[in-house]
Design goal:
Layout: H1 2-8, E1 17-23, H2 30-36, H3 42-45, H4 49-55, E2 63-69, E3 74-80, E4 85-91, E5 97-103, E6 107-116, H5 121-129, H6 132-141, E7 156-166, E8 169-183, E9 186-193, E10 198-200, E11 220-223, E12 226-231, E13 236-240, E14 243-246, E15 252-254, E16 259-266, E17 272-277, E18 282-292, E19 300-301, E20 306-310, E21 320-327, E22 330-332, H7 347-370, E23 385-386
């Protein structure tokens, strides 16, 4: 709310203005948004290639805010493109428009809640919290370990989670630290391992299915996924929508999962690139390759298929593989999806994990005993006048 109010204060207060919240509909693009609000399309075409790429990250269903003048003309807009960054469009005093990509201002809350099952875990979480993202994450976390069809009315669930709050509403994907489902008096647990952000049970066994694997043997990660990275060549902060794996030139690169090759060739600053489409709406991108393996567009490949060799083609300061991962067209952090091959923790890692499990399990059980309710968020007023 603070950022919206601060934006409002930059507008001349000689006219009335109001803020309206809307939803970004499927199929809408920034260019159609510009056309709707009579914003010159040159504003988009004059952006850098990276900023255009970021603008393409707007996803269907995201809530965004527009500040209108009293004659229903756009003065400013805030459109989230990730959990960290948003597009800021503003009409200047000379009636021209500017576009910048700025950090999202948010708060974070940590809660432990308990809910009695009335219909289904998903529906009951949404009904009690209004938080569809939490319901989705809960169902995904237990997907491989619990048969929800065995639930009965009156069974319980408890969740300890952390989530961002933007403008008085839950925002982004919640982090579930621990949760249980009680089925006929027996608790089934999942916990997030802080060492790799993947789910394990209360015995230290991994519950994450092996889908994607790291595509090569690498020396180190030279750049992580981020929306704000200092670019060593361009000398400015840019988004880095992937992971850079430093490795010697010529080292083999392999397909991260089964899929179909949809691109093999040059791609701007990425140099030589292979792109593979996978099941579930995923696409993987392998950039800066020195050369390609004997592969072709349209070919189906298995996980581990040799597709090329590490290089430094395109805009690159040294030999490495830039590995990008996309879900339904949106760039996502590969580190949060790639599964480890180990299925059970051992040694010191297991000891640290079990210590955490003991603490969170105690909180979950206490919450279930008290039937601790979700906190009520203070709703942001999405349509009001400012004089």
């Amino acid at each position: 709310m603070k950022i919206i109010l601060s934006l409002i204060l930059t507008i001349s207060l000689s006219i009335a203005s109001y803020v309206q919240e809307d939803i970004w509909w499927k199929g809408e693009t920034l260019l159609t948004f510009f056309e709707k609000h009579k914003i010159p399309q040159d504003l988009y075409f004059n952006l850098s290639k990276t900023d255009k790429e970021l603008c393409s990250e707007i996803y269907a269903g995201v809530k965004f805010q527009v500040l209108y003048s009293d004659d229903v003309k756009l003065e400013q807009a805030l459109i989230p493109i990730s959990e960290e960054m948003q597009i800021h469009i503003i009409k200047n005093e000379d009636k021209t428009f500017s576009l910048d990509i700025i950090p999202i201002e948010f708060q974070e809350v940590s809660q432990t809640i308990a809910i009695s099952i009335n219909s289904s875990p998903y529906q009951d979480i949404v009904k009690n919290t209004g938080n569809k993202a939490l319901a989705n994450e809960f169902m995904l976390a237990f997907k491989k370990s619990v048969n929800f069809r065995k639930l009965q009315k009156g069974d319980k669930i408890a969740i300890k989670f952390n989530q961002k709050i933007r403008l008085g509403q839950y925002f982004g994907t919640p982090e579930i630290y621990g949760a249980f489902v009680q089925i006929r008096g027996r608790e089934h647990y999942i916990f997030q391992n802080p060492d790799n952000n993947r789910y394990y049970d209360d015995k230290g066994k991994s519950l994450t299915s092996v889908f994607l694997r790291v595509p090569l043997r690498y020396k180190r990660i030279s750049s992580k996924f981020t929306y704000k990275r200092w670019h060593p060549i361009l000398k400015r902060y840019r988004a880095h929508l992937g992971i850079d794996y430093a490795a010697p030139s010529g080292r083999k690169v392999f397909a991260t999962a089964d899929g179909k090759i949809i691109h093999r060739g040059r791609k701007g600053g990425y140099g030589n690139v292979v792109i593979i489409r996978h099941k579930g709406g995923y696409k993987s991108l392998y950039a800066h390759l020195s050369r390609f393996a004997k592969i072709r567009v349209g070919q189906r490949v298995k996980q581990g298929t040799f597709i090329g060799r590490v290089g430094t083609t395109g805009r690159s300061t040294g030999p490495h593989l830039h590995f990008g991962l996309y879900k339904n067209g949106r760039a996502i952090n590969p580190a949060k999806v790639i599964s480890i091959t180990k299925t059970k923790l051992t040694g010191k890692k297991r000891k640290a994990y079990m210590k955490m499990v003991k603490k969170i399990k105690k909180e979950l059980l206490a919450s279930a005993k008290e039937m601790k309710k979700p906190m009520k968020l203070k709703k942001f007023e999405v349509s009001y006048k400012v004089k």
